[in-house]
Amino acid sequence: MDIEAPGEAKELPKIHRLDESVVNRIAAGEVIQRPVSAVKELVENSLDASSTSISVVVKDGGLKLIQVSDDGHGIRHEDLPILCERHTTSKLSKYEDLQSIKSMGFRGEALASMTYVGHVTVTTITKGQLHGYRDGMMEHEPKACAAVKGTQIMVENLFYNMIARRKTLQNSADDYTKIVDLLSRFAIHYIDVSFSCRKHGAARADVHSVATSSRLDAIRSVYGLSVARNLIKIEASDNDPSSSVFEMDGFISNSNYVVKKTTMVLFINDRLVECTALKRALEIVYSATLPKASKPFIYMSIILPPEHVDVNVHPTKREVSLLNQEVIIEKIQSVVESMLRNSNESRTFQEQTVESSPSVPSITNNESHLNPSPSGSKSQKVPVHKMVRTDSSDPAGRLHAYLYKKPQNHLEMNSSLTAVRSSVRQRRNLRETADLTSIQELINDIDSKCHSGLLDIVRQCTYVGMADDVFALLQHNTHLYLANVVNLSKELMYQQVLRRFAHFNAIQLSESAPLQELLMLALKEEELDLECNENDDLKMKIAEMNTQLLKQKAEMLEEYFCIFIDSDGNLSRLPILLDQYTPDMDRVPEFLLCLGNDVDWEDEKNCFQSLAAALGNFYAMHPPLLPHPSGEGLEFYRKRKHGKNPQDVGKSSCDIGDDIEIEDEFEHKLLSEAETAWGQREWSIQHVLFPSMRLFLKPPTSMAVNGTFVRVASLEKLYRIFERC
Ligand code: ADP
Ligand code: MG
């Protein structure tokens, strides 16, 4: 478009209807973003056609040629003329069918899109035909030809008419890798179909799977022995319409599997999809549970009632949306957590027995990994009502199916697990607390003050959501509780500091921060809050003194707490208290001031305790300093910043326009920052705080009375009020 000089009177640009071919290409751009998306659509079509063998040939990362051949039911001759028109499909007739659709395709858009961005040739034969048909989609009549059973679709010169796209894709060599990855995923889910994928002209296939009845065999043949031998089978299900209805089964890597990148192969109702929330939730469990903090390999298949899945939310159908997604994720997360802890602990036990039995086989089967040591298990009777859980951290019964042991009743299994777990945890604590008695005493204090009722709630509760800025709603058995997440996270962080004492991993600050300036900032903030008016000189002096003090203590802060302060008085490192969690850096100044003012540097035990408390307060999940995006706080913020002055009234309309623009931009930025901050916090509460609390928190007795937990309702009573709860 021409750039006009301001004020130049010129004809207004004409609005006109886009050519249909353009519209089609826009849609194509959405569905077929890269060669791999074309392969996915074609393979899905082959699967929809009940094929048992699918082979893919690719030339030049898919840009020159993609050819997918199958042995499925083929396409009727009379359908060929409309095959590649938009919105022609054999899978869906009315909109309502979407609710229950089982096939992967349904929009009739994929082949049409491909003909707009590439040259498509279809060869197909249906049952009972003597010959097949080949239809280059530009030709008028399909030609008879020899064909083997099924359909072969060839896409040549993809994006030949989209120069920019072709250029960007040509530079990236990883499209073939993506295609191989895609086929590998299909191959381990559709184990009764054989898949192959190769480069054009290559003798060897890069994916080659044969139909099998064993998922583990399929994984072994596609991902290799190193993956397959380190897997644990998992299962979970729920059939309670008031919370969730699903069945999940899969394989997850154990603690012997060490890689840097997560592989998550997820099928929901047999569709290959992605679910970032589930993936992150599981990564958290891995980093919290396994000492090596490896990333997992996960294959998971989730089956839900079709009407609970909305398949039509994404142009490439890559993401789907689920009913009760949060609940399902929580349940799966806790099953994975419990399986892992169990496998990890049995591994710990195995390591210990290595000396006495040096002939431990190097390749152990899954069962032996899962076999928890019976030592230390006390069978404790668990009242039946405790088995009624909305969130199971122990899928009692399910676990049982994978154990080598003689059948045991569920209750015993549950309590032996708990015993094994706590003994391991204690050992871990002992190791981690170095040999300082003061730290050991502080940890003993935590243990002796632990409230068993609250501990049970923390371990077994389901996180429902945030009720307001500070309180989360939890369900435990048939009760609903409000729990103060600030208090809880503060306590958890405090306990973590003591447990990880002298063994922290570090958060490296991107820029080292000068203590002096940060302390000044904190003092000014404090002044605003307290409305006391010290002059700047005095503040400088206090900041200076505190800086000196912290510099003096730097060695100890670094060695025990991983708080690194260099000789110039800059802060550059902080400890990791929970994996995948970084504190709100806006609170660094306040924290430093607190180190200077509130820490008792004289007595060892008091010093460690007050330092741990200061860190706890800093890392706690406070509401972000920016106001909540949906509240009135932002409005207030905006007014304060851009207070309407009476002088504004006389301004020219042009000035006001500018003002509004600046204000809009400011507001927009503020709003998006606030949304990010609050969104991240809520995510951390659900996916970091609650899972970690389940593992590590020992809630002190004081929390039972200080308003940290408030029981708000009993579901039995609510059931009477609402039919469906
Ligand atoms: P959709 O899969 O959404 O229906 P497509 O454009 O991918 O739309 O395919 C259009 C139609 O072509 C399908 O509904 C199906 O009837 C037919 N078709 C495509 N590929 C195959 C195949 N490999 N085997 C049999 N039929 C196919
Ligand atoms: Mg399709």
UniProtKB/TrEMBL annotation:
<keyword id="KW-0539">Nucleus</keyword>
<feature type="coiled-coil region">
    <location>
        <begin position="521"/>
        <end position="555"/>
    </location>
</feature>
<feature type="region of interest" description="Disordered">
    <location>
        <begin position="343"/>
        <end position="385"/>
    </location>
</feature>
<keyword id="KW-0227">DNA damage</keyword>
<protein>
    <submittedName>
        <fullName>MUTL isoform 4</fullName>
    </submittedName>
</protein>
<dbReference type="Pfam" id="PF13589">
    <property type="entry name" value="HATPase_c_3"/>
</dbReference>
<keyword id="KW-0234">DNA repair</keyword>
<dbReference type="InterPro" id="IPR038973">
    <property type="entry name" value="MutL/Mlh/Pms-like"/>
</dbReference>
<dbReference type="InterPro" id="IPR014721">
    <property type="entry name" value="Ribsml_uS5_D2-typ_fold_subgr"/>
</dbReference>
<dbReference type="InterPro" id="IPR020568">
    <property type="entry name" value="Ribosomal_Su5_D2-typ_SF"/>
</dbReference>
<dbReference type="Pfam" id="PF01119">
    <property type="entry name" value="DNA_mis_repair"/>
</dbReference>
<dbReference type="GO" id="GO:0016887">
    <property type="term" value="F:ATP hydrolysis activity"/>
</dbReference>
<dbReference type="GO" id="GO:0140664">
    <property type="term" value="F:ATP-dependent DNA damage sensor activity"/>
</dbReference>
<dbReference type="GO" id="GO:0006298">
    <property type="term" value="P:mismatch repair"/>
</dbReference>
<feature type="compositionally biased region" description="Polar residues">
    <location>
        <begin position="343"/>
        <end position="380"/>
    </location>
</feature>
<dbReference type="GO" id="GO:0032300">
    <property type="term" value="C:mismatch repair complex"/>
</dbReference>
<dbReference type="InterPro" id="IPR002099">
    <property type="entry name" value="MutL/Mlh/PMS"/>
</dbReference>
<feature type="domain" description="DNA mismatch repair protein S5">
    <location>
        <begin position="219"/>
        <end position="341"/>
    </location>
</feature>
<dbReference type="InterPro" id="IPR013507">
    <property type="entry name" value="DNA_mismatch_S5_2-like"/>
</dbReference>
<dbReference type="GO" id="GO:0005524">
    <property type="term" value="F:ATP binding"/>
</dbReference>
<dbReference type="InterPro" id="IPR014762">
    <property type="entry name" value="DNA_mismatch_repair_CS"/>
</dbReference>
<dbReference type="InterPro" id="IPR036890">
    <property type="entry name" value="HATPase_C_sf"/>
</dbReference>
<dbReference type="GO" id="GO:0030983">
    <property type="term" value="F:mismatched DNA binding"/>
</dbReference>
<dbReference type="InterPro" id="IPR032189">
    <property type="entry name" value="Mlh1_C"/>
</dbReference>
<dbReference type="GO" id="GO:0005634">
    <property type="term" value="C:nucleus"/>
</dbReference>
<comment type="similarity">
    <text>Belongs to the DNA mismatch repair MutL/HexB family.</text>
</comment>
<dbReference type="Pfam" id="PF16413">
    <property type="entry name" value="Mlh1_C"/>
</dbReference>
<keyword id="KW-0175">Coiled coil</keyword>
